[in-house]
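Hi R.,

Here's the chain you asked about this morning:
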Amino acid sequence: METTIDKFGRVVIPKEIRDHLGLKSGEVLQIERLEDEVMLKPLREESPLHIKEGVLVFSGAATGNMKEAVRLHREEQLRKIALPSKK
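And the predicted structure, written out as C-alpha coordinates:
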Protein backbone atom coordinates (compact mmCIF):
# COMPACT_ATOMS: atom_id res chain seq x y z
CA MET A 1 0.00 0.00 0.00
CA GLU A 2 1.33 3.46 -0.87
CA THR A 3 0.48 7.07 -0.14
CA THR A 4 2.02 10.42 -1.11
CA ILE A 5 3.24 13.34 0.96
CA ASP A 6 1.64 16.58 -0.27
CA LYS A 7 3.46 19.94 -0.53
CA PHE A 8 2.45 20.77 3.07
CA GLY A 9 3.97 17.52 4.44
CA ARG A 10 0.58 15.85 4.99
CA VAL A 11 0.05 12.13 4.50
CA VAL A 12 -3.30 10.41 4.05
CA ILE A 13 -3.53 7.12 5.94
CA PRO A 14 -5.59 4.78 3.73
CA LYS A 15 -9.16 4.16 4.92
CA GLU A 16 -8.58 0.40 5.20
CA ILE A 17 -5.79 1.00 7.75
CA ARG A 18 -7.74 3.72 9.62
CA ASP A 19 -10.75 1.42 9.90
CA HIS A 20 -8.65 -1.57 11.02
CA LEU A 21 -6.95 0.51 13.75
CA GLY A 22 -10.09 2.45 14.69
CA LEU A 23 -8.44 5.81 13.88
CA LYS A 24 -10.83 8.77 13.88
CA SER A 25 -10.53 12.32 12.55
CA GLY A 26 -8.65 14.56 14.98
CA GLU A 27 -6.96 11.64 16.77
CA VAL A 28 -3.45 12.40 18.06
CA LEU A 29 -0.62 10.28 16.69
CA GLN A 30 2.92 9.95 18.02
CA ILE A 31 5.56 10.03 15.29
CA GLU A 32 8.95 8.33 15.63
CA ARG A 33 11.94 8.10 13.33
CA LEU A 34 13.62 4.69 13.27
CA GLU A 35 16.75 4.75 11.09
CA ASP A 36 15.16 5.24 7.64
CA GLU A 37 11.55 4.52 8.69
CA VAL A 38 8.73 6.62 10.12
CA MET A 39 6.35 5.07 12.66
CA LEU A 40 2.97 6.52 13.63
CA LYS A 41 1.25 5.35 16.83
CA PRO A 42 -2.15 6.45 18.16
CA LEU A 43 -1.86 8.09 21.59
CA ARG A 44 -4.78 6.61 23.47
CA GLU A 45 -5.56 6.12 27.08
CA GLU A 46 -6.72 2.61 27.78
CA SER A 47 -10.49 2.48 28.01
CA PRO A 48 -12.04 1.23 31.25
CA LEU A 49 -14.66 -0.55 29.09
CA HIS A 50 -13.79 -4.00 27.79
CA ILE A 51 -15.81 -6.72 26.14
CA LYS A 52 -15.50 -10.00 28.03
CA GLU A 53 -17.35 -13.03 26.68
CA GLY A 54 -19.67 -10.75 24.69
CA VAL A 55 -20.55 -8.55 27.69
CA LEU A 56 -19.46 -4.93 28.18
CA VAL A 57 -17.46 -4.79 31.43
CA PHE A 58 -16.38 -1.61 33.24
CA SER A 59 -13.16 -1.54 35.26
CA GLY A 60 -11.99 1.80 36.59
CA ALA A 61 -13.31 5.16 37.68
CA ALA A 62 -16.49 6.38 36.01
CA THR A 63 -15.77 9.27 33.64
CA GLY A 64 -17.52 10.40 30.49
CA ASN A 65 -21.00 9.44 29.36
CA MET A 66 -21.53 5.84 30.44
CA LYS A 67 -25.15 5.80 29.26
CA GLU A 68 -24.05 6.74 25.75
CA ALA A 69 -21.25 4.12 25.74
CA VAL A 70 -23.70 1.40 26.74
CA ARG A 71 -26.27 2.61 24.17
CA LEU A 72 -23.69 2.54 21.36
CA HIS A 73 -22.51 -0.94 22.34
CA ARG A 74 -26.08 -2.24 22.41
CA GLU A 75 -26.77 -0.76 18.97
CA GLU A 76 -23.64 -2.40 17.58
CA GLN A 77 -24.62 -5.78 19.02
CA LEU A 78 -28.17 -5.47 17.64
CA ARG A 79 -26.79 -4.60 14.19
CA LYS A 80 -24.61 -7.72 14.29
CA ILE A 81 -27.63 -9.86 15.18
CA ALA A 82 -29.97 -8.22 12.66
CA LEU A 83 -27.62 -8.30 9.66
CA PRO A 84 -26.62 -11.72 8.34
CA SER A 85 -22.86 -12.07 7.93
CA LYS A 86 -21.51 -12.06 4.38
CA LYS A 87 -19.59 -15.24 3.56
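The chain has a mean pLDDT of 85.

Let me know if you need anything else.
M.
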